[in-house]
Every structure is written in structure tokens, then in C-alpha cells.
Specification:
Blueprint: H1 3-29, E1 36-44, H2 49-57, H3 64-76, E2 85-89, H4 106-124, E3 133-141, E4 153-155, E5 160-166, H5 172-186, E6 219-220, E7 226-227, E8 233-234, E9 242-243, H6 246-251, H7 255-263
Parallel strand pairs: 1-2, 1-3, 3-5, 6-9
Antiparallel strand pairs: 4-5, 7-8
Bound molecules: zinc ion (ZN).
Residues 181, 185, 191 line the site of zinc ion.
Length: 266
């Protein structure tokens, strides 16, 4: 065998291993047989004293509203897991994750997502990748009037979320909505809002059985907002007013919950 062929064989082997690991990881995280394993790593997004104070006051319990939400919603789809997820709060990280390309070019996006996965692997400080673990990096910023945060994101490949959040105790419930949204992206959920940020009917509505024109008070988590009176898009105050809709449930493999329920005769 020539060296060139040998090298191609090695590269193909690495590719197969990467694909296999991605598949294995998705199977583990989306099986709904054990609680989701979630690592939350805080990062000071703007170097502010407020973000610093917020990070130092953080506790794993601050994210318990997300567990309550996932537990409550997955129960509706036949999954019986309590807790539904286990959060480990990791020490603050000084490095920032690579930023996504601004122009949205496909090639740049692919390259960036590989770079992000490599960055996450390097940060873990472990030789083997943390298979099946959802890794969420939460960057905190001091709120500034009129300045919106960058878009948060969640990647299914690699189970990685990068969340931009406000360093403000009054915002922690809404931060949890954003974190839950990105967490569900890592499990395969897609966005259910349109270009204007309004929920798409019916899949982006908490109560999709009622006509679209009826004002709502709850949001579908992947839409993130509901349309209130006068068609105003409103972000709910907390996850208590969010649901996982039927399409999102299907996307994150909650159908498995039904199968398990029948298989075990519960
Ligand atoms: Zn999204």
C-alpha cells in the first residue's frame, strides 16, 4: 500500500469514528432512559464587575427551574424521569468560545462549528470526549439600555450550547428560558419563530388547537414568545409559562417515551 492510500485510509477511519461518536452521543442523550447530564460553564462576557459578581454567586440550583420544566413537559409525553437532568456547575472559564461567522456563509459556518467542537474538547482537559454530556457555556453581560445581546445558539453535533445571558438576578428566570431553548436545540429541536421573531402557527404555539387569533399567555419553548392581545410578541416571565409542543417533542425523540411506557406496561 502506498503512503497516500494509507493516509486516505486513516482519514476515512477518523471520519467514521467521528460519525460513530456523534451517533452514539445522540443516542445516549435522546434515549430518555436516564437524566440528561448537563455541564454549565459560566464566562464573563463583557469583563464587567456585575458579570463577575453574578458568576461568583451562581449555584447549580439556579438552573433547577430548567429541570422542573423538562421533567413536567416530558412527563406529558410519557417519560418518567426524576430528575430529568443533572446540572453540574463548572468553574468559570476565562476563554471565550469562537464566535460564529457574521455573513452566514455555509462553508464558514461548517468550519466554525468544527472549530467550536475542537475548542470545547480542548477546554474539557480530558483525553476522551465527554460523550453524551450537554455542554452549555453561559456568557454573562451587564445589561445596557438599548443594546441587545448576541444570539445564543445550540448545536446538535457535539451537544454544545453557547448562551448570552444578562448578569441581573431579575433576569435569571428569562435566562433559564434561553438556556432551555438552546439545550433543546442540542437534542435536535428546531426554531419555531419566523423572521420577525413571531411564533409560527400552529407548531410554535403552546395551545395549537385553538385558532391562531386567540391571544395566548403561554409560549412554545422553541418559539420563545407568545402573541398576546393586539398581536404583541411577549417573552414569558419564566419557564412555568412555557411548554414543549408536539412537533418539538417529536424532534427531540420523546416518541421514545411513549414506546417505553407501552413496552414496560406502565
Ligand atoms: Zn433557537
Amino acid at each position: 500500500m502506498t503512503f497516500r492510500r494509507f493516509r486516505i485510509l486513516i482519514l476515512l477511519g477518523l471520519l467514521a469514528a467521528a460519525l460513530g461518536l456523534t451517533w452514539l452521543e445522540q443516542t445516549m442523550a435522546r434515549g430518555w432512559r436516564a437524566p440528561l447530564v448537563v455541564y454549565v460553564t459560566p464566562i464573563n462576557g463583557d469583563g464587567s464587575a456585575l458579570a463577575n459578581a453574578t458568576i461568583h454567586a451562581l449555584q447549580a440550583e439556579d438552573f433547577s427551574g430548567i429541570n422542573a420544566f423538562i421533567e413536567r413537559e416530558t412527563t406529558r409525553y410519557g417519560v418518567k424521569l426524576s430528575p430529568a437532568m443533572r446540572v453540574t456547575l463548572k468553574p468559570e472559564l476565562k476563554a471565550h468560545p469562537p464566535a460564529p461567522p457574521r455573513d452566514g456563509s455555509v462553508l464558514k459556518t461548517i468550519f466554525w462549528s468544527l472549530k467550536l467542537r475542537w475548542w470545547v474538547y480542548q477546554q474539557s482537559g480530558q483525553l476522551l470526549p465527554q460523550l453524551g454530556t450537554i455542554k452549555l457555556y453561559v456568557l454573562y453581560y451587564a445589561p445596557q439600555d438599548g443594546i441587545a445581546l448576541q444570539h445564543s445558539l445550540g448545536l446538535q453535533k457535539g451537544l454544545i450550547g453557547v448562551v448570552h445571558a444578562y448578569a441581573d438576578p431579575g433576569q435569571s428566570e428569562q435566562n433559564n428560558i434561553v438556556i432551555a431553548h438552546e439545550l433543546l436545540h442540542t437534542l435536535g429541536a428546531t426554531d419555531k419563530y419566523d423572521a420577525e421573531g413571531k411564533p409560527v402557527y400552529p407548531q410554535g404555539y403552546a395551545d395549537s388547537a385553538s385558532p391562531q387569533s386567540v391571544p395566548r399567555t403561554e409560549a412554545e419553548i422553541m418559539a420563545g414568545r407568545y402573541l398576546a392581545v393586539n398581536g404583541r410578541a411577549v417573552m414569558p416571565p419564566s419557564l412555568e409559562r412555557c411548554v414543549i409542543g408536539a412537533q418539538t417533542a417529536h424532534e427531540i425523540n420523546l416518541d421514545e417515551g411513549f414506546r417505553q411506557q407501552f413496552a414496560s406496561g406502565r
